[in-house]
Amino acid sequence: MNRSGSYVQQVTGYGAFSSPVAVGLLEKLFHTPYISIKDVAQAFALTFQGASTLVAQFEKAHLLKEVTGRKRDKRYVYNDYLNLLAEGTR
Question: What is the enclosing helix (H) or strand (E) of 76?
Answer without folding.
Answer: strand 75-77
